[in-house]
Amino acid sequence: MATSKAEQPGTQYTATDIQVLEGMEAVRRRPGMYIGSTDQRGLHHLIYELVDNSVDEFMAGQGTSVQITIAADGVVTVKDDGRGIPVDKHPTTGFSGVETVMTTLHAGGKFGGKAYTVSGGLHGVGASVVNALASHLLVEVSRGSRVYYQEFSRGKRLTELKYRQAPAEANGDTGTSTTFMFDTDIFEDATFDFNVLAQRFKEMAYLNKGLEIRFKSDYHDTLWPNNEVTYYFDGGIASFVKNLNQAREVVHEEPIYVEKQLDGTIVEAALQYNDSFTEFVYSFANCINTVDGGSHVTGFRSAMTRVLNDFGRKQKLIKDNEPNLAGEETREGLTAVISVKLTDPQFEGQTKGKLGNPEVRTQVEAVLAEAVQHYLEDNPVDAKRILDKCLTAQRAREAARKARDLIIRKNAMDGGGLPGKLADCSEKNPEFCELYLVEGDSAGGTAKMGRDRRTQAILPLWGKILNVEKARADKMLSHDAIRAMVTAVGAGLDDDMDLTKLRYHRVIIMTDADVDGSHIRTLMLTFFYRHMQELVDHGHLYIAQPPLYKITAGKQIHYAYSEGEREGIMVQLEKKRNVGMQRYKGLGEMTADQLWETTMNPEARTLLQVSVEDAAVADDVFRTLMGDVVEPRKNFIQTHALEVKNLDV
Description:
Blueprint: H1 23-29, H2 32-35, H3 40-59, E1 65-70, E2 76-80, H4 97-103, H5 126-132, E3 134-143, E4 146-153, E5 156-157, E6 162-165, E7 174-182, H6 194-207, E8 212-217, E9 228-231, H7 236-244, E10 256-262, E11 265-273, E12 280-285, E13 288-289, H8 295-314, H9 327-330, E14 334-341, H10 358-378, H11 380-414, E15 434-439, H12 441-450, E16 456-461, H13 473-477, H14 480-489, E17 506-510, H15 515-531, H16 533-537, E18 541-544, E19 549-553, E20 556-560, H17 563-572, E21 579-583, H18 592-600, E22 607-609, H19 615-626, H20 630-640
Helix pairs in contact: 1-5, 3-5, 6-7, 8-10, 10-11, 12-18
């Protein structure tokens, strides 16, 4: 007798099957919903949540400093001299303010606007999430003559709130100190990155002039004495912009700066043009880096476009019969920092990547338009330089458009539009396809013979590609190798980029393991970062890792991908006879089988996925290494020379 689907085993679905996760359990089961991920970024996010709370105290006019320390064993302490978390009993929870904040989601002093007019921690989940994801956490609150303290583990209290007498020298001090050890069950392989953390704290100090942030990490003792930094900036974001432009020739000496409160929102912005061809706008809302922009960035861009066009028309720099400057043309070579502080910001998600408040757009636009207009009128020489740069960008953009149209027409006439040197794959689903960008015809020929023809496409590149850091778009598009890459990838570039047209979900840079190969790889990374950044942002760009050495011992073959690995293999083989070693200087020295086995076989290869942790750091590195100014590049090389290994000299 047949059974109905509802009667079959395992198909019954009733209310008892529905799980209800409450409080800390929900955080531990789904940490990614609260901190984004459980890798290094998520680990850093725990620190950021606590630091944001301390900075909120400063923005509320309480406290002057924040101290962050990481002990050798990974224990983190964040300490401030603010008011200290309340210790009296909460009327709703019945627990102390400390326990309520640390164990209850959406509990904080930032909802009603009484304790904090402006704050970065808005959802009331920051401290409690850190607590939920910590194997041990200790909170210490200084309140006058007493220091209150309480311990927790994985979101649950271990002790009641207790207190001890404050030492005589600290009697009268206030503030909060939170010490925690992240739960290794949640963050299995995550480690702290000193430079990433330091950069974030540096930004916070820029955004809050007068705030001192001290960061020390014994966890990074190998960096000693450079494992301790202190940041304090009287110049605020104007100093930030000057720092970002330090490796560039600037169009006007001092940044345009404005700070004004409008309808309850504090708008602060600094901007300065330089001689590059790229725009870099860094945006913040309540000191939170809004990496995806939002209404404040939209308002800023609208103001710049409108004011520069109005000024250009008024001064007859833009003729009556000429078109207006496009937004992209008014922002070429512009470095800017925009910071807004408001009572009730609307962020997208707990990680706060984008600001959504519609009213902020008009507020920022009004403040910026007034400030930039006054600057242009008061500084006619600088104003003409800025307009000349924008008009030059307009002419170059038109030339680039014609170059793009020429590429499209030429491809159509050639029939099919793919570069002649491209050996395409047979698979048509981009999700399973990968494109190898290979240095030179010789290596390209080897890769074509060794590849998996079904899923792997090969595009040999000839010579070193153009350094796009020093070239406008029209010159870039006239470069054959760059045009071939753009056409092969298929998704366009710059503002016209459309990832739905991407022909390969993995674009892999494969160059020789020598100095020339490193240079070519850097040139290609510069191109992708500047003109196809969506490829990077969505995880489609990779770097192949060919071996440095082939080591033989009789019939045994070993491949070493680093000097350390080579040394380890040689130690293992020291008692064997007939040990031979070959240093690969180029991909072309390998046979097709060797290249497949070591570098292209998905089952055995190592690929490095290219990502951008911090846009400001990435921008600075590309500008320093690939720009026109020599001194910053020289200083960078001298500073990092000891870190560089495996170079041929």
